[in-house]
Specification:
The protein is an all-beta fold and 160 residues long. Helices cover 0% and strands 49% of the residues.
Length: 160
């Protein structure tokens, strides 16, 4: 027996921000660049799934990064933003000085109650403290050079 999810996932949208540049996240809540997407769910959807992956490094604070991320929405085309209840996260690592532990891909998946009409969604957050900041989109390349890193990949879809 096989399961065919093709009729359960509809209105799939994928966005990649190739103009993204790295950004240090400070102690004030701020937008994670490249994570914003505009979406209208299918009228008979039971849930909406928002997914985002983005490279994060412990820079500028050695191997210590603690971010406080949350998913936000706007119903007024981005004039104001609201945190979505149940989406605030405390994530990161204080895993020593190894370079292998200073770089990683964060992958966020949120299962949301559906809504009617158009809505903008985005990730935002802050660092735990000035000694626990992180940098979005900073990479360390195979040839021992630093690069811009992976740009954000955002997917959103309706679950029927």
């Amino acid at each position: 027996m096989s399961y065919d999810p093709s009729n359960k996932i509809q209105n799939y949208v994928h966005n990649v921000d190739t103009s993204f540049t790295k950004k240090v996240i400070s102690t004030s809540v701020e937008y994670y660049p490249g994570t914003e997407i505009t979406y209208t769910p299918m009228s008979n959807a039971s849930k909406v799934i928002y997914e985002c992956n983005l490279q994060v490094s412990a820079d500028p604070d050695a191997a210590a990064t603690y971010l406080n991320t949350r998913l936000q929405y706007s119903d007024d085309n981005g004039s104001s933003w609201n945190d979505i209840n149940g989406t605030k996260l405390f994530e990161g690592s204080n895993s020593g000085t190894s370079y292998d532990q200073r770089w990683g891909i964060f992958y966020w998946i949120f299962s949301l109650d559906t809504w009617s009409g158009e809505r903008k969604l985005r990730l935002a957050g802050r660092s735990q403290s000035t000694s626990r900041e992180g940098t979005l989109g900073r990479s360390y390349n195979a040839n021992a050079t630093e690069g811009v890193g992976s740009c954000p990949h955002v997917s959103i879809y309706s679950v029927m």
